[in-house]
Write a structure and sequence with these properties.
This protein has 19 helices and 18 strands. By secondary structure, the protein is of the alpha+beta class. The protein has a five-stranded mixed sheet with strand order 1-4-5-7-8, covered by helices on one side. The longest helix has 18 residues.
Length: 508
């Protein structure tokens, strides 16, 4: 692997192997363009350096890739006038531009008309005076940096890799004689045709708007977008990985770091790793080996939001995706974890006698213990209760020593759940309910879009929707098959109450 040091004007070249996400990753439903999304080429190629600040002479880079067994090349050349190659907050601003492009109907021309204020708001950035200077420099970097993706740009509907030469912002104009931007500056942007085509063909992946709003460091948001994009199989974007493993130096190259000494890569990414673990997106970051050959392993902790971690395990046993999704949505998570561990124990013990492994697993998962009691020697997994889970935002008290009677009626379970919810802060209640919606109605949540679901979260957090009432009506809708209708009505009600600012009605 060549050293990263390079003189001004000299292109930094690297060779990197990019392993695909495993085919056994969980499959997620196709999306209908939620508000916060990323275009998969932009996300996976890592065109924007993750670092917030770069050396003044970092004006070019070049990476050689292996794509589906074929050689590919990716390069960038940028003038020093606007601060070198795109980096840092440029990722937020480019995502804000994409959001506006979608809001304006994804015009075939690729042209949008907006304002500096609107871009900053859509990017999730402050609208103070300094940020208009940041925006000015960023737009010019995105316009002046020239990229070449040789056999590396995915044409999704054509199912092939193509070569593209482009700037992320192909054309830029604004109505300021002073060459500065302000709140009301009218900005005209034209995006590159390949990017436009990709967006219009919905080669997109969702981003978590609440997580993005919680991440304070531009570095962390950049690493999150790149990591999250790398979890998706580019040839089948419905497949998502629950862990990623690669050489540390290769990952430094993908992050477009200039200094590729392994210890410095670790140091450069350390704060991002810490913040992503604190928010539960990452469960663990592991470093294996030493020196230039050491590897980094990311283990993701957000899969519980959609049951992705359990879906992945079911798919590995040959269970069909639709069946797996049905089982995950219909079975309480704690019960499912217990039964799946039992099924895997039974499979290992009787592997030679079980012919239809997938069918056997599903039978165990749907059984309440009558047909498949816990076998002798089986040790159930530790209950997740008592641990803090970001997906629910709940610190659940440890279970009592004596197990509750198995015949406890549904009303008692409901009362216990409601009491647990009411013991939380309003923000924790909102987190818990939205996480429950994502688990029980994953397809409908993705279809409605992250921004609209965020309205529900906001209304619950502001105590404009009653938590217990929403919980009861959600469960009724799930069991009656009307989850999407319920969510649409809840979104409308939440939006109306947010506009009026009225208090929640008492729940029944």
């Amino acid at each position: 692997m060549p050293d990263s040091a390079a003189c001004t004007g000299q292109i930094v070249k690297h060779q990197v192997e990019r392993p695909r996400p495993p085919r056994s990753g969980a499959r997620v439903p196709a999306i209908e363009t939620p508000r916060r999304v990323d275009e998969l080429n932009l996300g996976q190629l890592g065109l924007i350096c993750v670092q917030e600040r770069i050396p003044s002479d970092y004006t070019s880079w070049e990476v050689h890739l292996d794509v589906d067994g074929q050689p590919a090349r990716l390069s960038c050349v940028a003038p020093s006038e606007f601060g070198g190659v795109p980096h840092g907050l440029d990722g937020d601003i480019m995502n804000g531009i994409l959001t506006i492009f979608l809001e304006q109907g994804s015009p075939e021309s690729g042209e949008i008309v907006t304002t500096g204020h609107q871009i900053l708001v859509s990017a999730g950035l402050d609208v103070g005076g300094r940020y208009y200077q940041v925006l000015h420099a960023s737009l010019h970097r995105l316009n002046s940096a020239k990229f070449v993706a040789q056999n590396a740009w995915r044409a999704h509907t054509q199912r092939r890799w193509t070569t593209q030469t482009f700037s992320l912002v192909d054309d830029l104009a604004y109505d300021s004689a002073e060459q500065t931007l302000g709140r009301g500056s009218v900005i005209r942007i034209r995006l590159h045709r390949a990017f436009v085509q990709s967006v219009r063909e919905k080669y997109l992946k969702p981003l978590d708007p609440m997580l993005l709003g919680e991440l304070t460091r531009p570095l962390t948001r950049s690493v999150y977008r790149l990591l999250d994009a790398r979890r998706y199989d580019p040839t089948d974007p419905q497949v998502i990985a629950m862990d990623l493993r690669m050489r540390l130096v290769d990952w430094g190259i993908e992050c477009k770091l200039k200094d590729l000494v392994p210890s410095r890569i670790r140091r450069a990414l350390e704060k991002a790793h810490t913040e992503l673990q604190e928010h539960g997106y990452l469960k663990a970051v592991e470093h294996l080996g030493s020196g230039a050959r050491q590897e980094i392993v990311y283990r993701f902790g957000d899969g519980t939001n959609f049951g992705m971690d359990l879906l992945s395990r079911l798919v590995r046993h040959g269970v069909g995706v639709n069946v797996a999704q049905s089982v995950v949505q219909e079975t309480a998570r704690d019960d499912l974890i217990h039964r799946l561990a039992k099924a895997e124990y039974l499979l290992a013990r009787g592997s030679g006698r079980i012919q239809n492994r997938a069918g056997y697993v599903v039978s165990v998962l749907k059984d309440d213990g009558t047909r498949f009691p816990d076998p002798e020697g089986f040790v159930p997994p530790a209950s997740p209760k008592g641990r803090v889970a970001r997906s629910a935002g709940v610190a659940t008290p440890a279970p009592p020593a004596a197990q509750e009677p198995a015949q406890e009626d549904v009303a008692s379970v409901r009362r216990a759940r409601e009491a647990e919810l009411l013991s939380l802060t309003s923000e924790e209640q909102a987190d818990a309910l939205v996480a429950r919606m994502r688990l029980l109605c994953s397809a409908q949540v993705v279809k409605l879009g992250a921004a609209r679901i965020a309205l529900i979260h906001q209304a619950i957090r502001a105590a404009l929707l009653d938590t217990v009432t929403v919980e009861r009506e959600l469960m009724t809708a799930v069991y009656s098959g009307s989850a999407e209708v319920f969510l649409q009505a809840l979104i409308r009600e939440g939006e109306e109450r947010l506009q009026k600012g009225q208090g929640a009605l008492p729940g029944g």
